[in-house]
């Protein structure tokens, strides 16, 4: 088809105006992002974009069965179409700057064949996304907005259902299918001998009636109009994350870890006159930019333990509320709601799930810091902060009681002055809570049996400050951290083992900011090493009788889930006493020693104790531990192994409420191993 020069000019003007409108809308967001605090880290734009955008690293790890393949098809299909259009543009217009027309010969045939097929990934992916969205709408019904809060009610559907969510998918589908219709119409209008190199368009052209020049021209202009609509509406649609997620990845802090919160210094407080974040402009520019990358996919909401027991907290909504507050200047705590902010367990499931790198926990804790500084934390949360400040123990036990659990065990103490290789960091739960004390006692028994050179700080140990920090009391945390770091320096401590993943996280990831250089091991890591070295016997449970609950701060935040499993005996093996056959293959059926719950490893489900929630009031029907227990019990195992005193306390309380609770044994892995070594 030959366009007249007037038609060409109209086309150029339409494209230029639509692109200009798109860019102008993005530029209007710049002042909102720039309101924030400049970042202090050094980003790695190329590496991060290659990893998270081109490599789709986080997309691949979330929703591996549906969302990930669907998004990969859309993304790589879109990239292929973008590349095809760019190459065509260069071939046609590059001649003006001396680039010869390369769109011919064997290259052209390969171009037609490759991009014709790759474009189908885009069409199928978009159709899949739309079908899935409609299916979820059918299952859960439309989003109902609570008239009092103005926020969506919990209905189990991670996706929202605004009309524009459907319109954008319809537009993308029209663009994808329209491209093939246009290609087929050209073939039907002016067939060429090489058309079959583009198999999809060619097949479509064979079922088309004869296409006149006018009809072809009409299809061409309709497609061009859709492209213009796409450009103009893109910044208003979720698909804008093509750009905003790329910028977010480019500015992401390559050193950021889930386990570390940014410290605040007194100098900062004096300079800014505030603690934490009151209004959104007090977040960093990167955090504000990242809010615009949210495509409301609901992955964060789907995995949020608080939301999934019907609490008001919804991490997707938190992002939307903070984004709105960034525009209006409303206080973040008011926009999100204080109730939602306090409901967070800081489990980081949302951060792990978010494909565009949004760090919900940073933003929630920063808002909590402001609330604590303003005296707006009351009830049991405030009580725990007070008792921690008074005693250095999260349970409020006097410092003099910290050695009670050791009675009769002859536990070596650092102050005895004898050299030792590893410090056993007991933690408040291990020293105070009856269940935690059982783990501590089992662990020292095993350390003694294995001949490990260790000692404890005893009464010189204070709470690491983790609960205070995550509740928002940054300066109480820092005071405790500094005293503990001084004790480490006093005894030259370099290697620490602890049975508490919360202590482990703080010692490993956060004490570095206060001058400690420590190698910190979880007790399951040290015990696994001792078993591997033959210094302890491994446990030998029967296949399928044991399930293991991964603690968030061990498996997700500190990426440790193999060592605990090795203690249970995670190897897949054949049961030689019972002949079970996989009927489909007529082969012996492999039995796992460990019965895995639905969510495990990095995707584990929180017990509800983190972020200070352990000590906060909880409605009995809104305990995250109930949902987790359902998953653990569904495995059919009669022993639940744990590796965190917080998880143990929460699950123990949950088991006591269940009619089948008496049939389930709850043990720390150290106790399981102690049995094997008794
Ligand atoms: S915050 Fe991340 S995971 Fe949550 S809805 Fe937005 S993009 Fe999805
Ligand atoms: S950290 Fe956990 S509890 Fe908090 S919002 Fe994220 S998923 Fe929900």
In brief, what are we looking at here?
This protein is mainly α and 678 residues long. It has four domains: 40-81 and 115-251, no CATH class; 266-376, Fumarate Reductase Iron-sulfur Protein, Chain B, domain 2 (Orthogonal Bundle), CATH 1.10.1060; 392-532, Rossmann fold; 546-676, no CATH class.
Characterization of this structure:
There is one protein chain. The chain contains 30 helices and 11 strands. By secondary structure, it is mainly alpha-helical. A 4-stranded parallel β-sheet has the order 2-1-3-4. Strands 5-10-11 form a 3-stranded parallel β-sheet, with helices on both faces. Strand 10, helix 29 (645-657) and strand 11 (665-668) form a beta-alpha-beta unit. The model is unreliable at 573-583 (pLDDT under 50). The site of one iron/sulfur cluster has 14 residues, from helix 13 and helix 14.
